[in-house]
Amino acid sequence: MRYKIINGRIITPYRILAEGVICIENGKICEVSEQPVDFPDAAIIDAAGHYVSPGFIDLHTHGAGNCDFMDGTVEAFLTVAETHAKYGTTGLYPTTLASTNRELYKSFENYRQAKALNVNGAAFLGFHLEGPYFAMSQKGAQDAKYIRNPHPDDYMEILASTGDIVRWSAAPELEGSKAFAETLATRGILPAIAHSDAIYEEVIAAFDWGFRHVTHLYSATSGVCRRNLYRYAGIIEAAYLIDGMTVEIIADGVHLPESLLRLIYKIKGPEHIALITDSMRAAGMPDGKSILGSLANGQEVLVEDGVAKMPDRTCFAGSVATADRLVRTMLRLAGTPLPETIRMITSTPARIMGIDRNKGSLAKGKDADVVIFDNDIHIQLTMVNGKIVYSI
């Protein structure tokens, strides 16, 4: 299909084109202009004065639409992709929880099948493994019985089972983490710091090994602590001090208050921040009881106040956010400018994952991943690789 988007306020990484035109052919953007463009035989999409944005990229999501990537079915993958597309996500990274390897392998097989069938949802961009190599003291809602240290016999077997892993979150202070990170780096897989009690010095070493990204900053990440009377900076402070370290934040307005959203933005800037949902199956669903993880082996959680909680309410159990909510929260709560807010959910995550050559911005030659939304970030249309997968 050939499409011509007209009458839209086009969001680029640094400014907004007041009345722009975008031409799309064969799934690619072939023209972005502030001037009228002759593009015959194209289907016209009238943006009606709404914003036209690059598609949102979610680096970290476990599910949505009452489905989880650990459910063990192809249908679950497709449902999650289609649900997130309704909220502006055009590309996502299916994320696992600490589990048995058998469950992982089942998810890998389902991913392969679902990717071939996924024509109506956000594109699958690769697997993100969250765990099982975590600090027990920072396990959060992860199931303790699966948590362990990285060992070559274990992670090499997992790596041999699929070529779809592109990111792996782990605690770098654990024994064996250096060899683990170096193994990932040789395969082009991003090691990320997560569920960790590492101190600053350990993070510095881990950065040199390849740990260049922090998973859900402030959630299950260490801060200033005391050990044998002396104070040590933690992951949070290290993320601020290391200029090249990127971070992701659950900008649902619950996991992080206004003050921390503003602080992170002030220190790291939009070029080093990715907005993530970290959503579980209850995203896009009403409040009430839900399951974190697979239906077979997951943990019961409670969804209330716009977030998932453990039943005893001692900690959060993942978010129920969708991508549009992240943008809305940053604009309204953190007061970030719209172009920079959009960068944090488009071009920055694309650069973090090394796919910015094809995705993350509206530019000639890039994939036609496009979202149209109104002033309140209500999604009007979602296009993935030149195909409209959602419209009101």
What does it look like?
The structure is a single chain. The chain has helices spanning 74-85, 101-117, 152-160, 177-186, 200-209, 235-241, 258-268, 323-334, 338-343, 347-352, and strands at residues 2-11, 16-25, 28-33, 43-46, 51-54, 56-61, 63-64, 67-68, 89-94, 123-124, 127-130, 165-170, 190-193, 213-214, 225-227, 230-232, 246-250, 273-276, 288-292, 299-304, 307-309, 370-373, 379-384, 387-391. By secondary structure, it is α/β, with parallel strands linked by helices. The protein folds into 2 domains: 2-52 and 376-391, Roll (Urease, subunit C, domain 1); 55-358, Metal-dependent hydrolases (TIM Barrel), CATH 3.20.20. Strands 1, 2, 3, 4, 5, 22, 23 and 24 form an 8-stranded mixed β-sheet that branches. A 6-stranded parallel β-sheet has the order 11-12-13-14-17-18. A hairpin with a 2-residue loop joins strand 15 and strand 16. The radius of gyration is 20 Å and the shape is globular. The model has no long low-confidence stretch (mean pLDDT 96).
